[in-house]
Amino acid sequence: MGLDTDTSKNSKTKEFETLLNEDFKKRDFKEGKIIKAVVSEIGKKHIFVETGLKSEGAIPIEEFKISKELENLKVGSKIDVYLEKIESYKGDIVVSREKAKRMGSWEKMTKAFESQKEVEGIITNKVKGGFIVNVESCLCFLPGSQVDTKPIKNMDTLMNVPQKFLCVKLDKARGNIVVSRKAVLSKTRDKELANILSKIKEGDIVNAQVKSILDWGAFLDLNGADALLHVTDLSYSRVDKPSSLLSVGQSIKCCIIKIDQETKRISCGIKQMHPDPYENLEKKYQVGKIYDGTVTKIVDYGAFVKLQEGLEGLVHQSSLSWTKKNIHPSKILSSSQKIKVKVIELDTEKRRISLSYKDTLENPWTSFIKKYPNGTTVNTKVKNITDFGLFVSIEDTEFDGMIHYKDISWQESEESLKKFKKSDSVKAKLLEIDTEKEKIRLGIKQLEKDPFEFFLKKENKDIVTATVKEVLKNGIKVSVGSDKNLMITIKKNQLAKEIEDCRPEIFTRGNKVDCMIVDLDKDKRKVGLSIKELEKHNEKIAIEKYGKDGSSSGAVLGDILGKVFKSKKKKEKK
Q1: What does the alpha-carbon distance between residue 8 and residue 21 come to, in Å, rounded to a whole number?
Q2: Angle formed by the axes of helices 531-546 and 551-573, to 10°?
Q3: What is the distance between the alpha carbons of residues 520 and 516, in angstroms, rounded to a whole number?
Q4: Which of 37, 155, 172, 567 has the highest CB neighbour number within 10 Å of its CB?
Q5: What is the CATH number that goes with domain 281-360?
Q6: Measured between alpha carbons, how far is 155 from 158 in angstroms, rounded to an integer?
Q7: Tens digits of per-residue pLDDT, 276-303?
């Protein structure tokens, strides 16, 4: 019985060897190729395989654990192995299961890259610039920009989950493979988008959901397709921010206004579902007429007023008030306030309407001119002081005016501004009311008599009597006429004909002196006085009358000049 059993085993072994040898005879063994092998023994550290060569190959058991093949592996299992060396320096063959799988994956990835066929892989871990993807034991690089069609904040849901990828770059020499998940999603999206686009057309009214809101518009979801709603297509009225009309997740109805077949972009609008209020605008509103409106928004430069749904006009800051030019519009109008406005311009091409609020109110300039004509003396209060004059408010009115520094005093000095301060009460005369420019000019000096009026009746070479008011180093300051406010300086070189007499100190305050007008400019209100020229003039008259030759005439001339000099000294003493 035992002999029969041994005989049966030996026959089976010989039969297995025969079949194995016949299988191996058909094989072509070359290093660097994948060959077929049969598992002959499963050890604790190695898996031994028969390859048809003179010795068995030993493969580390870890290569089977990585791919989880060890569970289903048994003696007699046929597997692919990579033949690294037919004979090592020890005389053994060197084979690898992991390299066989990797080479097989490379071949599959090469075919997938050439045919652009999708492959399945798992994102295993994150590296600099992207992620590592395992595609059948072939490690590939997934750039961060190729993960999805939109930014993803949390990648945990995609890790260690089977995903579809497209091979976009393959470098066998360097062993690099780059895959893209975004390309797969884009292909799927393009198919879905093509299906959606086949069901809609321009002009259709569709339901959409607001996905996101930006400053310049919003993105909508049209049953899986993205669409753009620009801020200018929200309403015919002015819209500053789309968020004032829309919210994320909101369901809206909109009109498809454009489909770009090349880029597959869809543009939508809400205002296109309603008639354009600017059509036949001239028939509804006329320039110069007054209409009811509602203030919708206050801005720095004016206020927007709604005339009807979708139709707004601007009341510029300059058209808000007759008298308050630089006031902020919020100080005059408020949002939601119902007012009357006058249409002053309609521009259908630019889609612009200009309105006026002040034209609907009584013009206070008309009543002001009737009550306060030019030349009227009014009470004012100083509001502001500048380098060129005073800005004042006219009491009992809502008007402001300006007093130029030249109109404060007849001396026309900028120093005259220094005696004023804010809130000072000042009497002034209305000089000019310009209703077109809406400006009022006033003067203080006009309340007094013009001291220069004395010289308006005089001419050059006329002789006048002046009073010494102040003795200076370079001359004397005198007043002429009855008005003591008109001060004129006689320079040192004009005090006497003789140089030794041109001394200002010989004059005292209050002296009366005769002098000649030498430089009178009535337009510029300037005048020059000279004692020297008067002396020359008197000398010339004396010579013409008595002559300059002969003792008698000389004595007479000397006597005359002596009398003039004594008269001058006498006046100085007085």
Answers
A1: 20
A2: 150
A3: 11
A4: 37
A5: 2.40.50.140
A6: 5
A7: 888 888 888 999 999 999 999 999 999 9
